[in-house]
Specification:
The protein is built from nine helices and 57 strands. It is mainly beta. It has a domain of 101 residues: Sandwich (Immunoglobulin-like).
C-alpha cells in the first residue's frame, strides 16, 4: 500500500471530475439568432462559474462542465437578462437548453422555471443515466451499485453484458468501467475492481452503443461519479442489518441459511474549514465515506475420518468390499491390514492432525469459520483556483478484506487467513484556457493485492520427522496436498498464491469550440504490472483413489498413492503498455443536424515477462537458448523470436461516425445513428500463462509411486527439486506447451445503432431503436496436437501416444485470434424524471447473441473438435431473448394527493422497487466420458427436439426439465451432434420483484432527517430455479434441477441525514 501511495504522490498528474455538455441556441422573440450573447453557468453548490459566448448562428456550448445543479444566465445588449435555475447536468449528458431573450434592458431579469430538454441532439451514443435518487433509494442486495446497470436496455441479467460484449460479476471483458474518469479495471484478468458504496456515488451512466472516440479499450462504457463536497455540510450515518430469522429458505434448502449481517458507515462532505486559519468556501471541498460490514458466518462441514478400528488396520466394517495388498493383489484376511504394514507417516499424521470419528461410520461434523467482514474508505478533495478557472481534485479509495481460509477440509487446517486488498488513487487538473478551450490531465493507479496465509505451518525438517524421506523437498513451510477419496475422504488442498497487480493510467483531453465545430483530441496511456507467485502443488500433490487396495483410506494407510505431482514455483512478472491517441469533431451542420466524426489510434504493445517467459513454435527448428528444448520450441534470443512470443501489430485504427437529426423544430424528436470500431486488448492474462510451462517451471507426474514417504525412489536421477531454469534445463517427454498462433491480433468489436428518441409531456422520454455488433479476432485456445482417432487401436490410456508430436509434446495449445461473435437487438426505454413524487424507468431488450467460443477472452476447452470451430457457432451462454426491467421511486402521497388529509396521514413515506424478468439461458449438453478419444470436451448426439410441454406441474419440470432420451452418447471415436448451446432448449427464466418501504421523519428540523427502511429481496418468494443438469454421464442430476436462487430476504436500515 505504501509503495502505491508513494508512487502516486511522486507522479502528481491528474484526473478530471465527471463532466457533461450543455448546448443551445439564443434567439430573439422572432426566432432570429443573437450573436456574442454572454452565457454564464454557475454550479450552485460551489459558486463556480463558467462563461461562453454565442456564435454568429446564436449557438453557445459548454463542452465539459462538472456535473451538478446550475443556474444559467444569458445577457445581451438590448435584451432582458435570462435566468434559469435547477439545470441539472448528469454524467456524460448532452443537455439542450434553448434560450429566448425578451426585448428590454439588461438590468431587467426574466426568471424561467421550465426544465431543460433531455433529448440528445448532439451525439449518436446510446446511454442511460442512473441518478443519485435510484442509487441511494432503490434496494440493493449487498449494496453493490453495479447491480443497477441492468436497468438500462442492452445490458445483461448481471447488468454488465453490454452491446454484445461479455462481462460477469468477476469479469468485465469489453466493458470500460471508469470512476471519476479513472480506469477501474484490473487489466490482468479484465475484471471490474470494487466500486464505492451507494452513499459515496452520485450517479453513473451506461454507454451501450457507439461511445465517442474519447473512449477506447472496450465497446461499452460505465462512467461512475463519486460525490464531492459543496459549500454546505451534508452527510449521513447509516446501518443496514439483516437476520436469518426473517428470511425464507431457498427452495431446495431444508432450513434457512444462518446469516446475520450489519453494514454501517458514514458519508459526508463540505467545505474545508479550519477555525481561525482557513475558510474553504467557494474554494476547497472534501468528501469522505467509511463503510464496514460485519457478517459472522460458519459453514457446516462434514468429513469422513478413520474409525478407531480402522486406525488399527481393521477394515471389517466395509465388508463385503475387500481390501487388497498392493504388493501381490491378494485380499487381506478379514480386511485386516497387519500393524507392520501400516505406514508410520500415516499413523503420525492421524495422531496429530485428524479428529476422532463421531460415529461408527467415521463421520465428523464441525462448523468451519467463514466470516465476511470487508471494509472500505473513500476520501475525495477538490480545489478551485483562479476564481474557478482551474480545478485540482484527487481521490483515494481503499478496500480491505481479511477472512478465514482453509487448507483443505480438516478442522486443524482451518486457521489460515485470506487477504484481499485494493488501492485506487486518482489525481487531476482541469483548466479553462478560454471561453472555448478546456484541457484536462489525469493520472490514476489501481492496485490489487491477494495473499493466502495458510496454517498450520510445517518446516521441511518437521515433515521428515513426521515420516517423509530425507530427499523430499518442499518450497514453502506448508504441507503437501493430498486427496483421499472413496468411502472416506480427507482433503488437504495446497494452493499458496500471492498476487500483486498494478495499473497506471494517464491521459490528456483537450476541447476546442471553433464555429460549428467542437473538436476533442487527446492521448491515453495504460501501464500494467502483474506479479504472481503461484506455488500451487510446489510441495507435492498426492491422489489416494483406492485403485491399489480398494479404498482411498487403505491406500493412504499402506503408503501407496495412485499418483504424485510436484512442480517448481511459477513466478509470473509481466509488464504491459497500451498507448492511444484520438480526435473527434462534432460538426453542427445545421441547427437540426449534428455529425460526429472521429478516429482513435490504438497501440497495444504485447506484454512481456521479465524472465522472457514465452514460447514460439516453428516445426523442426532448434533453440540455441535452451539447448535441450524439443524440436520446434524457440525462445527470446533465438533468431527472429520476439520477446513477447508475438510481434506487435501497429495498424489499429478505430473510426467513429454518427449523426443526430432533430425531426421537429422544438428539437424534442431526434433520429440518431452511429458506427464505431473498438479494440479490446487481451493484456497480460494470456502472457502470464507461459510461466507454468517448461522450461520456466518443471511439473512432473508420477503414476503409482512406490511410497508416500519417498515418491521419487524410482525416478531416474532422483528428486529433481529444487528446480531452477537455466540454458541446460532438461525437457521431459510428453510436456504440455503453449504458444501464439500466426498473425495474432487483438480482439475487435464493431458496433452500430439506429434509434429514435422523443420527449413528451413535461417529464417523459422514450427511446426505441436497433443496436448490433460484430466481434472478430477474439482469442481462441486450440490444441493443434490433438490425438488422432485410430479405429480399433485407440483408448484413453494411449491418448498421448496418438498425438502427432508425441513423444515430445502432449497437449500443445495455440492462442489464435480467430473466434467471433454477433449481437443484434431491439431496445426500448421509457424514462420519467422525478416529478410529482414519482420517478419511473422501464427498459426492454429483444436480442440474439451468438459466438463460437466458451469465453470472450479465451476458450480453455477449445471445443470438442479443435479442427472444426464452425461447429461451435451458436447462442452465447449469456444470451437472453427477452429482458425487461422496471424501477420506480414513489413518494407517498404523490400528485394531487400531496396536499390535504393524505399528506398528513402519509407524509414522509416512500415505496421503491425493481421488477426484472429474463428469459432462460440456452442449455449446453455435455458428456464427461471421453468417447471421442480426443482428450477434449465431449457432447452427446442430439436425436430430436428435447423440449417438453410447458403446462406440466412444477415437480415434473424439476425432476425432468427436458426429454432426457432426446440425447444419447455418441459412438466411440465420433464427435457428438449436439450443438455447443442449444438455441431451442432454454433454461428456466427469472422473475424477481424487490421492494423497499421507507419512512422519513423530520422532527429534528428541516436540515435533519431520520429514515427507516424495510427492504424485501425477492418479495414474493418466487423460486427462480437454476439450470438443469446437462451431463448425460451424471444420471443422478441429468435433466434435473437441483438448485435455486435465494428465497425472500428481508433487510432493515436506519439512516440519519443532515
Amino acid at each position: 500500500m505504501f509503495r502505491r501511495i508513494a508512487a502516486t504522490i511522486f507522479a502528481l498528474s491528474g484526473l478530471h471530475a465527471q463532466e457533461a455538455r450543455l448546448t443551445g441556441t439564443i434567439t430573439d422573440p422572432s426566432g432570429g439568432s443573437i450573436a456574442n450573447a454572454r452565457v454564464t453557468a454557475t454550479l450552485a453548490g460551489r459558486n463556480q462559474s463558467f462563461t461562453a459566448l454565442s456564435s454568429a448562428e446564436g449557438r453557445y456550448q459548454f463542452p465539459r462542465l462538472p456535473i451538478g445543479d446550475y443556474q444559467v444566465r444569458a445577457e445581451s445588449e438590448g435584451f432582458k437578462t435570462f435566468v434559469q435555475s435547477n439545470v441539472n447536468l448528469t454524467t456524460s449528458a448532452d443537455l439542450l437548453l434553448n434560450i429566448v431573450l425578451e426585448l428590454g434592458s439588461v438590468s431587467e431579469q426574466v426568471t424561467v422555471s421550465a426544465e431543460a430538454s433531455r433529448v440528445s441532439t448532439e451525439s449518436a451514443t446510446i446511454q442511460q443515466l442512473v441518478d443519485g435518487a435510484r442509487i441511494v433509494d432503490l434496494p440493493l442486495n449487498g449494496r453493490n451499485v453495479f447491480q443497477l446497470a441492468r436497468l438500462a436496455p442492452g445490458t445483461g441479467e448481471s447488468g454488465v453484458n453490454i452491446g454484445g460484449g461479455r462481462s460477469g460479476s468477476q469479469n468485465s471483458a469489453m466493458v470500460n468501467v471508469r470512476v471519476d474518469g479513472a480506469l477501474n479495471i484490473d487489466n490482468v484478468f479484465q475484471a471490474t475492481l470494487p466500486l464505492p458504496s451507494p452513499d459515496a456515488v452520485q450517479e453513473f451512466t451506461i454507454q451501450t452503443s457507439v461511445p465517442p472516440a474519447k473512449y477506447g479499450y472496450a465497446s461499452g462504457v460505465i462512467e461512475v461519479s463519486t460525490r464531492s463536497g459543496t459549500n454546505d455540510l451534508h452527510g449521513s450515518l447509516y446501518e443496514f442489518f439483516r437476520n436469518d430469522k426473517l428470511d425464507a429458505r431457498s427452495f431446495f434448502n431444508p432450513t434457512r441459511v444462518k446469516r446475520k449481517r450489519n453494514q454501517y458507515g458514514f458519508a459526508g462532505g463540505g467545505p474545508v474549514w479550519i477555525p481561525r486559519l482557513y475558510n474553504g468556501r467557494d474554494r476547497t471541498f472534501w468528501f469522505a465515506n467509511l463503510e464496514q460490514q460485519k457478517e459472522p458466518l460458519t459453514a457446516a462441514t462434514t468429513i469422513f475420518v478413520p474409525t478407531a478400528r480402522q486406525l488399527r488396520g481393521d477394515f471389517g466394517e466395509v465388508l463385503p468390499r475387500t481390501i487388497r495388498d498392493p504388493s501381490n493383489n491378494q485380499v487381506f484376511p478379514q480386511n485386516q491390514i497387519p500393524a507392520s504394514r501400516i505406514d508410520p507417516l500415516a499413523s503420525n499424521f492421524f495422531r496429530q492432525y485428524v479428529p476422532e470419528a463421531q460415529d461408527s461410520l467415521g463421520t465428523h461434523r464441525y462448523l468451519r469459520p467463514a466470516d465476511n467482514n470487508p471494509w472500505q474508505i473513500l476520501v475525495r478533495g477538490d480545489q478551485l483556483l483562479g476564481g474557478g478557472k482551474h480545478q485540482v481534485n484527487g481521490r483515494i479509495f481503499l478496500t480491505r478484506f481479511s477472512g478465514p481460509t482453509g487448507h483443505g477440509n480438516l478442522p486443524s487446517f482451518q486457521k489460515g487467513t485470506a487477504y484481499r486488498d485494493t488501492d485506487l488513487f486518482a489525481l487531476g487538473y482541469t483548466t479553462n484556457i478560454s471561453t472555448n478551450k478546456i484541457n484536462t490531465a489525469r493520472f490514476s493507479l489501481n492496485g490489487s493485492y491477494q495473499f493466502n496465509d495458510y496454517a498450520p505451518k510445517i518446516t521441511l525438517d518437521e515433515l521428515k520427522r513426521l515420516g517423509w524421506a530425507s530427499n523430499f523437498y518442499t518450497y514453502t513451510p506448508d504441507f503437501p496436498a493430498a486427496v483421499i477419496s472413496g468411502a472416506f475422504q480427507i482433503s488437504i488442498e495446497q494452493i499458496f498464491i500471492t498476487r500483486d497487480y498494478n495499473t497506471f493510467a494517464w491521459s490528456d483531453d483537450f476541447s476546442w469550440i471553433r464555429g460549428r465545430h467542437t473538436i476533442n483530441l487527446g492521448h491515453d496511456g495504460i501501464r500494467t504490472v502483474q506479479v504472481d507467485n503461484n506455488l500451487s502443488r510446489t510441495n507435492g500433490s498426492y491422489q489416494f483413489s483406492g485403485a491399489l487396495s480398494g479404498l482411498g483410506l487403505s491406500d493412504f494407510m499402506l503408503g501407496r498413492p495412485a499418483s504424485f505431482r510436484q512442480g517448481s514455483p511459477a513466478p509470473d512478472n509481466v509488464r504491459g503498455l497500451h498507448l492511444s491517441w484520438y480526435v473527434q469533431d462534432d460538426i453542427r451542420v445545421h441547427r437540426r443536424l449534428t455529425l460526429n466524426l472521429g478516429v482513435r489510434y490504438e497501440l497495444p504493445l504485447p506484454p512481456v515477462a521479465i524472465n522472457d517467459a514465452a514460447i514460439t513454435y516453428r516445426p523442426g527448428a532448434k533453440s540455441r537458448i535452451y539447448v535441450n528444448a524439443h524440436p520446434g520450441m524457440l525462445f527470446h534470443g533465438d533468431e527472429g523470436v520476439p520477446r513477447a512470443g508475438r510481434t506487435a501489430f501497429k495498424r489499429y485504427f478505430a473510426p467513429r461516425a454518427g449523426l443526430a437529426w432533430s425531426l421537429s423544430k422544438d428539437q424534442k424528436s431526434v433520429l440518431r445513428a452511429g458506427y464505431g470500431i473498438y479494440i479490446n486488448p487481451s493484456w497480460s492474462n494470456i502472457e502470464g500463462q507461459f510461466a507454468i510451462y517448461q522450461p520456466f517451471t518443471r511439473i512432473i507426474d508420477i503414476v503409482t509411486p512406490p511410497s508416500t514417504a519417498n515418491p521419487w525412489a524410482n525416478f531416474p536421477g532422483g528428486n529433481p527439486h529444487p528446480y531452477k531454469p537455466d540454458r541446460n534445463a532438461p525437457f521431459d517427454e510428453g510436456i504440455v506447451a503453449l504458444t501464439y498462433g500466426p498473425n495474432f491480433r487483438e480482439p475487435m468489436m464493431q458496433q452500430w445503432n439506429l434509434n429514435l428518441q422523443r420527449e413528451f409531456g413535461r417529464h417523459w422520454l422514450v427511446t426505441v431503436g436497433y443496436a448490433g455488433s460484430r466481434g472478430t479476432h477474439i482469442p481462441y485456445l486450440r490444441d493443434f496436437n490433438a490425438p488422432r482417432f485410430i479405429p480399433g487401436a485407440s483408448s484413453v490410456a494411449n491418448t498421448n501416444q496418438r498425438r502427432p508430436l508425441f513423444p515430445y509434446f502432449a497437449r500443445f495449445s495455440s492462442f489464435e485470434s480467430v473466434a467471433s461473435s454477433s449481437y443484434n437487438s431491439l431496445q426500448a426505454s421509457l424514462d420519467k424524471r422525478l416529478a410529482g413524487g414519482v420517478s419511473l424507468l422501464m427498459s426492454y431488450t429483444f436480442s440474439k447473441a451468438l459466438h463460437d467460443m466458451n469465453s470472450v477472452l479465451t476458450n480453455a476447452g477449445g471445443g470438442q473438435d479443435p479442427d472444426n470451430r464452425a461447429a461451435e457457432w451458436g447462442p452465447s451462454d449469456f444470451d437472453r431473448t427477452h429482458a425487461f426491467t422496471a424501477s420506480w421511486i414513489w413518494e407517498i402521497p404523490s400528485g394531487r394527493f400531496r396536499r390535504g388529509p393524505a399528506s398528513v396521514l402519509f407524509h414522509g413515506w416512500q415505496a421503491n422497487g425493481i421488477w426484472s424478468m429474463y428469459s432462460g439461458a440456452p442449455l449446453q449438453l455435455a458428456a464427461s466420458v471421453d468417447r471421442s478419444l480426443r482428450a477434449h470436451p465431449n457432447r452427446p448426439n442430439r436425436l430430436r427436439d428435447a423440449r417438453l410441454p410447458e403446462d406440466r406441474s412444477r415437480n415434473d419440470r424439476i425432476n425432468q426439465y427436458f426429454d432426457r432420451s432426446a440425447y444419447a452418447a455418441q459412438p466411440l471415436g465420433e464427435f457428438g451432434s449436439a450443438p455447443r448451446a442449444d438455441g431451442q432448449l432454454k433454461g428456466p427464466g427469472d422473475i424477481t420483484v424487490t421492494m423497499g418501504i421507507q419512512k422519513n421523519f423530520r422532527g429534528l428540523g428541516e436540515r435533519h432527517r431520520l429514515q427507516f427502511r424495510s427492504e424485501f429481496f425477492n418479495l414474493f418468494n418466487r423460486p427462480n430455479f437454476g439450470l438443469p443438469g446437462t451431463n448425460i454421464d451424471s444420471p443422478g442430476n441429468y435433466g434435473r434441477i437441483t438448485g435455486a436462487a435465494d428465497g425472500r430476504i428481508i433487510q432493515f436500515a436506519l439512516k440519519y441525514l443532515f
